[in-house]
Design goal:
Number of domains: 1
Order of helices and strands: HEEHEHEE
CATH class: Alpha Beta
Number of helices: 3
Shape: globular
Distance between the termini: 11 Å
Helix content: 25-40%
Number of strands: 5
Radius of gyration: 13 Å
Length: about 110
Amino acid sequence: MVDASWIEAEVLKAVPNAVVEVVDLHGSGDHFHVRVITEDFEGVRPLQRQKQVLAVMKQHIPHPIHALDLKCMTPKQAETAGDTAFDPHGGGQGVHIKRIMKNKEK
């Protein structure tokens, strides 16, 4: 089990200039919604953005992280992005849910 601040520190290894928002979706320390926001993503395709972050995170999947909802965007995209997270286990088939408060204190 890990916490939001640990996830944030790991993501910042891959994208040091980013703002990282982490939500523990179930409070279980293994299902996370992560928004990575940086101008460095300008002109970079979405899959390449995720690959940059996953290069650091993949060593932690499936243990201690079981599920990672990863959103990588520019600041401009973050301004207009919807306020939802994807819970891969919600309802058994995955479901979009309203984002919960940032969970950095756990």
